[in-house]
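User: Design a sequence. Structure:
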């Protein structure tokens, strides 16, 4: 599985001519890195007398970031699997009218699945912005830049995931589905950008 590769192996696999891991998996990995940084800052704030007043809050945030990291790691392989599902659908036989209809239906079903995986990543990135803002404003000031990087990585991961949603929407014939997903993409994108700017704006160096 992709998530079990070493960093070097993952980078080499990405650089190869194999289409996976691709942008969707990279988006999930980037989100996982953001979550890891968030958890790190949370841990760097706990167990210190000077931050005793935010101890419980930071412990709770560490758990949130840890759960997000686990989900993002899983999404690395889920994205690759969804791409494989699309490719397998295109390989279905199309010799008869019935086979053509079944193939068309399978392709559309798999395209939706391929759009929904990165959409979940993007929405999870947006959910992670408030906890990141908290570690930046209340966490150990010596790690404030780590919190800022988490925000930037989270923004990049979310926007990258949305690009993968949009390209899949271009092949989906269900107009109502495409309209709803596009609206969600636009909303998540604008909120991610606003959140990142607000968080980074709180970092004074």
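Assistant: Done.
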């Amino acid at each position: 599985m992709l998530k079990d590769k070493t960093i070097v192996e993952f980078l080499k696999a990405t650089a190869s001519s194999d289409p996976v891991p691709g942008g969707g998996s990279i988006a999930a990995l980037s989100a996982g890195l953001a979550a890891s940084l968030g958890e790190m800052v949370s841990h760097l704030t706990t167990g210190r007398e000077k931050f005793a007043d935010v101890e419980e809050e930071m412990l709770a945030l560490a758990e949130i970031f840890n759960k997000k990291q686990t989900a993002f790691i899983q999404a690395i392989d889920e994205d690759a699997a969804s791409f494989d599902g699309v490719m397998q659908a295109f390989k279905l036989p199309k010799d008869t009218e019935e086979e053509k209809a079944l193939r068309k239906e399978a392709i559309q079903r798999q395209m939706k699945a391929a759009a929904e995986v990165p959409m979940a990543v993007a929405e999870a990135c947006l959910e992670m912005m408030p906890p990141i803002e908290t570690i930046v404003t209340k966490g150990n000031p010596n790690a404030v830049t780590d919190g800022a990087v988490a925000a930037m990585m989270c923004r990049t991961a979310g926007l990258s995931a949305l690009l993968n949603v949009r390209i899949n929407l271009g092949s989906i014939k269900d107009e109502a589905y495409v309209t709803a997903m596009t609206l969600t993409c636009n909303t998540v994108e604008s909120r991610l950008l606003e959140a990142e700017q607000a968080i980074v704006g709180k970092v004074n160096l």
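The longest helix spans residues 97-138. The chain has one domain: 22-200.
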